Amino acid sequence: MSRFFATGSDSESEESSSADEITPKTSGPNFRQSLLLSDDEEDTKRVVRSAKDKRFEELTNLIKTIRNAMKIRDMAKCLEEFDQLCRAFLKSKTIVDKEGVPPFYIRLLADLEDYLNQLWEDKEGKKKMNKNNAKSLSSLRQKIRKYNRDYETEIAAYKEVQELLLLPLLHALLDGSSSGSSDDEEEGGEGMTAKNFLKKEAVPEANNTHAHDEASSSDDEDDEDWGEDSEDSGSSSSEDGEGKSSSLPKMFAKGTEINTTVVVKKLNEILQARGKKGTDRAAQIELLHLLAGISGEHNLGQGILVKIKFNIIASLYDYNPNLAAFMKADMWKKCLECIDELLDILFENSNIFIGENIAEDSENLAIIESQPFRVRGCILTLVERMDEEFTKIMQNTDPHSQEYVDNLKDEGHVCGIIDRLLSYLETKGSTEEVCRIYLRRIMHTYYKFDYKAHRRSLGLVAETKSEQDQEESEGEDSAVIMDRLCKFIYAKDRTDRIRTCAILCHIYHHALHSRWYQARDLMLMSHLQDNIQHADPPVQILYNRTMVQLGICAFRQGMIKDAHNALLDIQSSGRAKELLGQGLLMRNMQERNAEQEKIEKRRQVPFHMHINLELLECVYLVSAMLLEIPYMAAHEFDARRRMISKQFHHQLRVGERQPLLGPPESMREHVVAASKAMKMGDWRTCHSFIINEKMNSKVWDLFPETQCVREMLVRKIQEESLRTYLFTYSSVYDSISMGTLSEMFELELAMVHSIISKMIINEELMASLDQPTQTVVMHRTEPTSLQNMALQLAEKLGGLVENNERVFDLKQGVYGGYFNRENRGGYQQRQGGYRGGGRYRFTLSSRAH
Amino acid sequence: SFAFTWVQFNGENCLNKDTKTNLQDGLKVVLKIIKHYQEEGQGSEVVQGVLLGLVVEDRLEITNCFPFPQHTEDDADFDEVQYQMEMMRSLRHVNIDHLHVGWYQSTFYGSFVSRALLDSQFSYQHAIEESVVLIYDPIKTAQGSLSLKAYRLTPELMEICKEKDFTPEALKKANIGFEHMFEEVPIVIKNSHLISVLMWELEDKSTVADKHELLNLSSSNHLEKSLQLLMDRVDDMSQDIVKYNTYSRNLSKQQQQKHQYVQRRQQENAQRQTRGEAALAEEDITKLFKPPQPPPRMDTLLIAGQINNYCQNVKEFTSQNLGKLFMAEALQGHNS
């Protein structure tokens, strides 16, 4: 919000303060208020008025002295007083902001300017003036001209009214000082502003005539006026809006020549209401549209149109006062159209310069030959905001409804806009801006699988001719685009965040398209793992998504270990859903308050970008199974065996706890059942549990290269089952033929040979290969479970003895131990002897199998 | 299938007069205990019951028993004492011995030396002087030899339990080791002549295979279980020793500090005396140095007893098994 307003408007403070209100209160209509004037309401008003009174008394006093000075043509005095007046006015700014510029102030400004112009024109009179006075005159004239620029509209309105009412006013004056209320009532039809001006016009005139005695009464009169005004002020702005929308065609007074300045004035006028309480936002948008139409009709040039468009879009964003709320469908449509039109204009007219750094007063909106338009505003911010709005809309739509699909169709439009802006900024924007828009583009590309490129890489020709045409026209592969954009950002970006995001997206994209090595290298080179915990949550979510994608990619490539390592952190926390920004966990509900929940909800990734959690879990569990089962078999008796994957063990335990084991239903049950089969070295059953119709539809079909993945999986299952089999049953074999093994596991002989060789080299399997007979000869050096247990017991007893000795030491002092040092060393040596396992040579004739 | 429940007169003539407390038992009691375990005990679960009988001269005759019912934690209003009284009253009505003389318990691989057993046996023996606890080992029994043992607490242990003082010093003073905690009482199973005759006949009739359970050569399963249990106990023992070790280290450290403190105080007082000032007031030294809480040693003692028990079991088992193995080897050599 604030980022947007930093570039957009001059009323940002008000905007941001009202940004979080849900609906501004529209105060009741005027007549009701006046009818229901109760005592305490009066009281509250009096409090407000007293502060105001003080300020305005000061102002009116100053104005009086100025008018007096004007009468005696004392320019020096005039200048002095005017300066004071300006200062006083600045001081009372808070009140003015609340109440609007007081009409008497405008009146003075207008009169003073006219008066000065008159004097300036009067050459003779000027000559007569003394030097001091003449100097004051010129400086005052310049000053007031500059000063009045800020109040152009009001002054114009005042003058209009004055012209209209000059005659009746004069009559009224002639009628006497009793002009007051009766006249007002007669001329009530002239409208609010007219009435106010009229009345105030009358008062000073009267003042002038009865200069010395009317001072106090004029104050009273003024006060009354302000009282009236303040009563109105609550509703005035909304009424303004309504009034204007009902009198839309009459935006400008008839006959006013419509030119750039007038339109800009009007635009500013409309914008002033922005962000104030009670402003009808919809009406404001309407008004701006109308203004755009008028400026279009009158051919005021593209500059002004661009400016108005900027403001329309900004107003559209403003429409929702709440940060959490999302745009309505029609608003969204309008917004997209508007941005499109704006881009159209910008593309057609290369002589329009836009930028947030162009100051308001150095804008150039009018059509001047050979001079380019200069418009303040940042289209990039608008588009970024649009993108955010799109995300918000997607977050707030039920992902399983048709509505979501419909909304998602707009994604193409959004991408189109980003693309157009990208090509625009490439020619005109600064590097920073280009980086930003590139990142937007990347964000819309990285998570999409490029089916076209995938098909091409498989060497498939598109089936129909039309499809082929379409393919050719579609432009470069997303991989090429990603590469180009990311490399630009790597080289040019100076904010760390954009680069980090770009790297992560790049890795994600690589991983998605199975370019494992590129993805891994990029991840390792970026060193993001080291400092990602300092990044802001959205970047962390992106990091998590990337890690997960990387893991899944590794799995597809058959790098089971890498896959497991990449997914371990996410899965072991049990909060994958939350870490990936794909939903909030229920159990956290008590821990966070509503505010935090809102923030977290805003971080959620839209549904179409989600990573399938079941797929993720399945990939993780299968990886864990392929690693853990052989490991468990190899270290069955190892007391200090650690778990590779806690989660996998947890699933196994859950499976064991089932009182009745039916055929597996869920994905987890399938994996558990497969693990059990693998434990026995039964790869066929394992295979049938991992790859079957149910699992295909649940998990494996989600991969683009589903066939390759399945083949890889079968292969892995065969290999790991072979290893498990050898670990588990090596004790019952004296020797085993590799040919038999190769038949059992349907692996080539060479493969079996290589697996067994690896196991022997790694000292996992105590055996040797007998080349001529192609058999594995077991060495039987591994102790049986009973022997293992005896070893463990011996170790424990060793510990016990040692502890005991320590107690003894304490009693006897260190020197006089029961065992002296050498003895203890001898004991430990003996223990070493046990470990060698050489003593356990005896074998029982009836060995349990 | 056995119809021995009608045997009502047990142990009228006891032959064994050497031991102080003799135990007279009937087959009925044994079978009831076995039946109780078969029906309700599962794996490491333990079944318990009450022994009834009377003291005759210098021997204890157990003539009947009944089991404690299994009850879950949900029916908390179940009153065990009430049940026992009720049961004994009923037995009295049908004119069966109703004197409470102890209790029985099954065991899993010989693990019964525990705090719970100690406590309840203590309360039995405290209330009824002649009480014994019968330990029935179903696993050993399943291997072919009935394993039934009667234990009593030694007078020394009774003394300690009465004091409820399990500190290292007290145990040391009582001079009690794990060997002297329980005394085993020999058991003689006496049956009526009719039953003996029936037994002879049954033995004659039974097939050869039924008798040769004894010759089973497999050993690893039993040994593994025993070792597993033994290891657990050794772990506990280690922990206890470590605890004790820290305690004694803390104690000696404190002793040193106390000593230093006293010395310093003495020095200071001596200085003050030379300067002619009044000596510092004596402070309560025990308040300054609170002695560390000594760890109770009873559990350690029990663990040691249990370990001893396991070791005996394993020793017995292995010696038997080795004998069997040699026998088998000799047989094979003979055959070939």
Keywords:
heterodimer, A: 849 residues, mainly alpha, 3-stranded antiparallel sheet, 40 helices, 5 strands, 2% strand, disordered N terminus, disordered C terminus, B: 336 residues, alpha/beta, 11 helices, 8 strands, 53% helix, 14% strand, Eukaryotic translation initiation factor 3 subunit C (chain A)
Work out the radius of gyration of chain B: 28 Å
Q: Which class of secondary structure composition applies to the elements of chain A? A: mainly alpha
Mean pLDDT of chain A: 73
Helix content percent band of chain B: 40-55%
Distance between the termini of chain A: 73 Å
Structural class of chain B: alpha/beta
| Overall geometric form of chain B | elongated
Strand arrangement within the widest β-sheet of chain A reads 3-5-4
Largest sheet report of chain B: 8 strands, mixed
How many E-type strands of chain B?
A: 8
Number of helices of chain B: 11
Q: Which range does the strand content of chain A fall in? A: under 5%
Q: Estimate percent helicity of chain A.
A: 55-70%
The gross shape of chain A turns out to be elongated
* Percent range for β-strand residues of chain B: 5-15%
Secondary-structure element order of chain B, as H and E?
Answer: EHEEHEHEHEHHEEHHHHH
* Protein chains sharing the most extensive interface: A-B, 21 and 25 residues
Poorly predicted spans of chain B:
1-25
**Rg calc of chain A:** 42 Å
- Side by side, the strands of the main sheet of chain B go 7-6-5-4-2-3-1-8
User: How many individual β-strands of chain A?
Assistant: 5
GO biological process, one term (chain B): formation of cytoplasmic translation initiation complex
Subunit structure (chain B): Component of the eukaryotic translation initiation factor 3 (eIF-3) complex, which is composed of 13 subunits: EIF3A, EIF3B, EIF3C, EIF3D, EIF3E, EIF3F, EIF3G, EIF3H, EIF3I, EIF3J, EIF3K, EIF3L and EIF3M.
Domain MPN (chain B): 23-157
Subcellular location (chain B): Cytoplasm
